[in-house]
Amino acid sequence: MPLSSVEYSYGFGVYETIRVKNKNPIFLSDHLSRLMDSAKIIGLEHLFSENEIAKYISELINKNAVETCNLKILLIGAPSREEAQLDIICLNPLFPDKKIYRDGAELITCEYERPFPHAKSLNMLNSYLAYRQARQAGAYDALLLNRHGFITEGTRTNFFCLKDKIIFTPPEAEILPGVTRKKLLELAQENGYKIEEKNIKPEDLINYDSVFISSTSSKIVPIKKIDELILNPPPDALKKLMSLFDNFLETSN
């Protein structure tokens, strides 16, 4: 696709990042389903099917002989569905420092609402700027606040609070429903945790036992500090959930 393409330069596209482990793309069907849903939400028409993309992914993994990587899928729109472009790229996985799983990560907050919360679109400038601000501050990520001051999600993570064995999550209608988030909540419910959707402000966080985030690359990361607020160390209920999810990923496909 030429750089002069309006669709390319204006970010008219959607994407997914898939973790590959032992040549196996983890949760592939969920990621491809969300890719298709994202395209529909922004009106991106194309001729690619989930089965076709899965075949391309398999061929790419085999030809590159990669055991572990992150796959980035870019689906970029065009004036006609026939011209839409699909790119699949193998990237070196970027895993968090292991000590943050023990000690917790630091976050900052930024005011920003994504225009299409359920679409994983290429229109990511504000998220990029928020993430850059976080990294410049020495933080792991930035939590996004909507116009009402409620936390929605991170720039590349989903956000949760834990009280006893109840996991609180922002309303799904207002966030990108992460694939890792989906699997995490399913596993939690199977192991006796309850799930509640709730609007949460930064000043409410002192009322919870712990705060954590999740993503494809990071899995579950406990949080020790948000802006100037120092949070509780991970309780046993969160450590148990982290262990359950790690074990779950070892056998997932």
List the main descriptive attributes of the protein structure presented here.
253 residues; alpha+beta; D-amino Acid Aminotransferase, Chain A, domain 2; 2 domains; 7 helices; 30% helix; 28% strand; globular
Could you explain how this protein is built, in words?
The structure is a single chain. It is built from seven helices and 13 strands. With 253 residues, it is of the alpha+beta class. β11 and β12 form a beta hairpin. The chain starts with 5 loop residues before the first helix and ends with a helix. The relative contact order is 0.14. The model has no long low-confidence stretch (mean pLDDT 94).
Name of the CATH homologous superfamily of the largest domain: D-amino Acid Aminotransferase, subunit A, domain 2
The whole-number mean of residue pLDDT values reads: 94
Overall number of domains: 2
CATH topology-level fold name of the largest domain:
D-amino Acid Aminotransferase, Chain A, domain 2
Low-pLDDT runs: none
Q: How is the main sheet built?
A: 9 strands, mixed
Note the quaternary state here. Answer: single chain
Question: How many separate helices?
Answer: 7
Strand content: 25-35%
| H/E element sequence | HEEHHEEHEHEEEEHEEEEH
CATH uppermost class of the largest domain: Alpha Beta
Helical content stands at 25-40%
Task: Kindly state the number of beta strands.
Answer: 13
